[in-house]
Amino acid sequence: MSGAEAGTQPVTVLETPIHLDYVFTPGIAQSIFLRGLARGVFLGQRCPTCGKVYIPSRGSCPVDGVATDEVVELPDTGIVTTYCVVNVPFAGQAVEIPYTCAQVLLDGANISFMGLIQEVPADQVRMGMRVEAVWVPPDELGPSLASVKYFRPTGEPDALYESYEEYL
Amino acid sequence: MSAPARRPVAVVSFAQARNVRREASRNEVELLMPVVSEVFAAIGASKDDMGFICSGSTDYLVGGPFSFVTALDAVGVWPPRAESHVEMDGAFALYEAWVLMQEGAIDAALVYSFGRSSPGDVTEILALQLDPYVTAPLWPSPVALAALQAQALIDAGEATEEELAEVAARNRSAARANPNAQVVSDASPEELLADEYVVAPLRRHALPPITDGAAAIVLAAGEKAREWRERPAWITGIDHRIETHALGCRDLTRSPSTALAAERAGLFEGPPVDLAEVHAPFAHQELIVRRALELGDAVTVNPSGGALAANPVMSAGLIRIGEAAARIWAAESERAVAHATSGPCLQQNLVCVLDASDGAVVGGGA
Amino acid sequence: MSDGDVLVANHVLDYPYARSVGPVLGAFFTALSEGRIVGVEGSDGAVIVPPTEYDPLTGEDVGELRDVGPGGVVTAWSWQVAPGRKHHLDHPFAWALVRLDGATTAMLHVVDAGDPGAMATGMRVTARFRPPAERRGHVLDLEAFVPEPDGGGR
Which residues in chain B are contacts of C79 at CB distance < 8 A? Predict the structure, then answer.
């Protein structure tokens, strides 16, 4: 007897959904960073060997492989090292296009992280542009990068290329 | 069997995290970093001495993608390093490092592994290593499949529930001497037989604990090994073999892959081993592996307490190699065998023969 | 920072995998949806169930599909004392390797036996399929094996 005789459709695809539940911890160092965001401050960590400051730190210097135990509070200001302008809509998009997404190097940090650039037209964003963080209102602060609403230009003169070229 | 000349490579350093049920605070990098520091500090080496880095882990455990990449932060990989990763126990990462070292281009390698089983349900996660079409959709846990194997062994007249309790009692009693052990006990086999069944015929004591942990080993070749360790544990042979994933096509009461890996690793040539560290997460599996390795009664088996005392997934096999090597360094063993397993019901097995003398390296090539 | 300061969050992963099954497993799942079980001839004439695309022991090509079962023999079993949340039966059951009539190899499935005392290696079981309307070309179209009356259980 064959499937054709029984009149059923041949099976070609099998659905095998997998659902997994976790209780996740970001660890000690990233918890420090996230707790800082809940207070409206940027907390990085310094490597005792090379002196570089990482934000967010995973608790280890990725160059030296040693613990970054010293917590360093960083200012809200920094520079755009590089950026892109998003013109394509996608599922789950929270910001109206076009918008600018940049790597921001906070003053005193040795690594950049990603942030939105607003209060400036997309075509005026520049590498080396000085920016500052705009936080959400105090009652909306939480242990998440969503506490940083976006970065905006400070109006200060642009940083020299030589000052950030090693962070590109 | 004519073996090619092999380059003498030895296990010269070993460190592991204290095995715990739940590592509540630290992430993978924070768990691993002190272990890597310790494995270097023990021999006065640094990452700059390592010509290769190889790790073993699985992202499903923590539920984050590419956790093996971020874990490299625990080592520090600048300037850029030669690195590789296996989605398997660290013992299999060690095999890859050993093979690369046979080429002769590098003299030292770091091997590490890590895994926290506590964030998710490890019995569900390990079901995902099964065939995804006809087996995984049933969600058989590793315990359920191991219990099938145990019942097959009992039905074949090759084990009794009493013997499983004896294996568990001996391992957990030996673990008293292991400062990193998670489960230690002086309970007698008779007392253990009062345990309830988890999946019959396996009672609670015949199961491994759920463990968060990490481990690291340094391999070194020739003179470099002697420089770092007075009495290196030379790898005289290492091999691993896998069987079909189709459980119904296997004789679960035997481990032909272990036996073949042991033969290829030269275990049955030369003087007998005096010590074995076998990776048998379930009590009955020790009986199967002992038989496949042809271990006599004179062999000390699992002085560390084995996987029944601590079973950090992805590290428990690498730890067997480290524990066996440490006993050669301490002159408590002249020749030892370490075994690591992967997959359901001992599907894949690695056998590593360690010797106090590099003259025992098959082929004797320098 | 003390442990109490470390953040913890619930985290869920959902993988909505849909897998192409190919001609061999496709035939197996199609048969299940029709209330039948098929295996495949291995290189030495053995009948492999579930069918594989190649002989798992020799790596050789496989031959024709063969109808097997619905009855068979339990070759190994264990007893799930408390079902897990992902198990499709809500009461204790046996895991079993079942060698179906006409097959050479055994397949993993469950036996809905009610009580571990009803289980024994060598006992005969038979397939219980879901009602036709509930089948979807899945290994759980075969809901469970059940002991055959006087099939040799304890």
Answer: 147, 197, 199-201
